Amino acid sequence: MTPTPVPTATYRLQLQPDFPFARAAAVVPYLAGLGVSHLHLSPVLEAVPGSTHGYDVTDPTRVREELGGEAGLRALADAAREHGLGLVVDIVPNHMALEPAHSPALWDVLRHGPESPYARWFAVDWEAGGGWVLLPVLAGPFGEELGRLRIAGDVLEYGERSFPLRPGTVPDGPDADLVSVLDAQWYRLGWWRLARTELTYRRFFTVSGLIGVRVEDPGVFDATHAKIVELVRDGVVEGLRVDHPDGLADPEGYLRRLAEATGGACWTVVEKILSGDERLPQSWPVAGTTGYDALYRIDGLFTDPAGAAELTSLYREFTGVPADLGGRWEPTRLRAAYRMVSHELAAEVSALTRLAARVCAGDPGLRDHAPWALATAIRELLVRLPVYRPYGTGGSGGSVGFGPSGEEVLTLAAAAAAKAAFPVAAESTAVDAVRELALGRRGAGPDHEAFRARFAQTAAAVRAKSVEDTAYYRYTPLLSANEVGGDPARPAVSPAGFHAHAERIARDLPATGTVLTTHDTKRSADVRAGIAVLSQCPERWAAFLREVTEETARQDGGRAPDPHTAWTAWQTAVGFGFPYEDRLAAALLKGAREAAVRTDWSEPDTAFEAALAVFVAAGPAGPPLYSVARFVRELEPYVRADALGAALLHLTMPGVPDLYQGTEREYRALVDPDNRAPFEEGTATERTKLTRAALRLRRERPRVFGPAGTYVPLAVSGPAAGHCLAYCRTGEVVAAVTRLSLRLTEAGGWRGTEVELPEGPWSDLLSERRVRGGRVAAAELFLEGPVALLVRDEPSGGR
Questions:
Q1: C-alpha 297: how far from chain center
Q2: pTM for the complete prediction?
Q3: 171 with 151: CB under 8 angstroms?
Q4: Sorting pLDDT into bands at 50, 70 and 90, what band is 394?
Q5: Are strands 133-138 and 239-242 parallel, antiparallel or unpaired?
């Protein structure tokens, strides 16, 4: 099979019942005219009815009927092909929805138990459950909900949900003892709260409605991937985005099996979140990541480090929050991690403890480690890992256990864990034991292999939930920095740092993905740009905050529930720029529940949430919105410069840019579900012109931007050199952007700053101006706008 070419650019569409395959086909001509090479589709396999995202897969063997079924998907592929486009599809190997009525495989498992031919599909610990699996689906305690359960034929019904009855247990008449019938099943229906401590299956993060799938089993892989592989081999699908590989037992083994199954015919990227300077394992057979590492560098380039530090000081003074509840990043992250391992993910820690205890019992050198010590060691190690999941440097074993890099990470974490949690040095050896088990240097047998995999899977869940979904909502000096793959403690990236990242990508992962906005970003790129500009004017932000606080206090119910809520709400409003009360209120409520300080999902504080709603209506969405509008208008030129600069970097830097639906124009959206509305075409804007110019250039000159292309930073000199970043791609295209434009204006402009261009002449595709080569004044280069996209008039060599 001929390998599929690397896409020049992809365009993400969120499929859902209101935007099925047919509607996607209708916008193909528009997207082809935009200049992308591939449509990037959200999951297309059968999912929970009505799902607006598709990650809750119910049947991986069929294309989703609500979207138009397999015929509809193939018709979309044909329509795309007629316009020169291909399809990239999001796949979800880690989990399926716990909805047996919609999942034939899960229905069979619940009916027939471990003897079901599908039992091997799901990550269920039958022994831990006493031979049955707990389903935490009841709204209240079993005794209170018993009256809502009824038997209809061979089906158990609970509200709108249904579950199969085990053969031979269906009662003959209406007088049967319901409890006895329930006790005879392969499952137990339990109160949803039991999921925290009593769960007997692996789930996705803390979402008990998503059950883990054992794709490490070759038979399970084949069965759950047959349809996707068929679509690839038929040429319907040309690329794959792999969702959450960190959740798999053996990510590298899975990716190798996927590459073999698709015959090398797919451009494949993985949703791997890299922390700090972490690198993607070189042995993985993929093109790269989905691009959050690029997002961090681009955003950071337009964040002023001095101003960000000043904002942090203002934030601490204004909110007065304790260091570990939002006052300082690392204590906040650590406290959130402790909450995960002791509360939300307690069932996962218990499962690890059981496995570790069994392994230690069979090793004379580890036999004396008590379960409490092992549990403590596991918790302390998990909260201190600085990455989502440590990986080795080679081989499939490095993915399940850990190679040298993983050893370093675990060793450092173990030293800190022993010191923090074990006052008696002799007892701290339990930490060393757990580390050795995780590294694969002690222990043997199935329980040990299960521990190694489960420890790594749990580490990813702890990191994601404690950082992305908790600490990001507690520590909020600059909300634009709180994005997947970001570092709130170091929100700024220097030009040298950006160049270093881009050069490494060009050298090591030239076909990796890059993004600015996704279905998972907490704020779209435009919202983040509207917030990041505050790092250039912290004194203006402080004055604005005083003004709106006083103004809002005069409104009925206008006082914020607490200063932290006020700071977060006003920053969100400034970035959002629109007084849409329902959208703003929903995002702020979700943020408060995720933070789990004043309210949360399981124990909502109705008084606080009511006060929050009243505050939003009287404040950011009330009369002070005119003050917000004025403040936003004052900063608009600088936000525009940053947003255009970020877009140009995204579209021209090394890698394959993925555009989220609607982002070819101004697109302001908050956290999901706000950012998952059906796609709509919009009017052409300045951003659209820039996007079309860059995308068409990528399509026309694939050699310049493709895997063989080069990236060369261009020298900038003069008093404002730090405000310009420029580079040349393969000697034929130059991208130059203005950064921190507000600071630049305050400092007096370019003042003789020059950019060293390669020999020209050059044409600017955005202004249609000619630019000479050599040393060019930045003021001339940016005469008609904050960005420039230059093309050499006579390309050196073929395209």
A1: 16
A2: 0.95
A3: yes
A4: very low
A5: unpaired
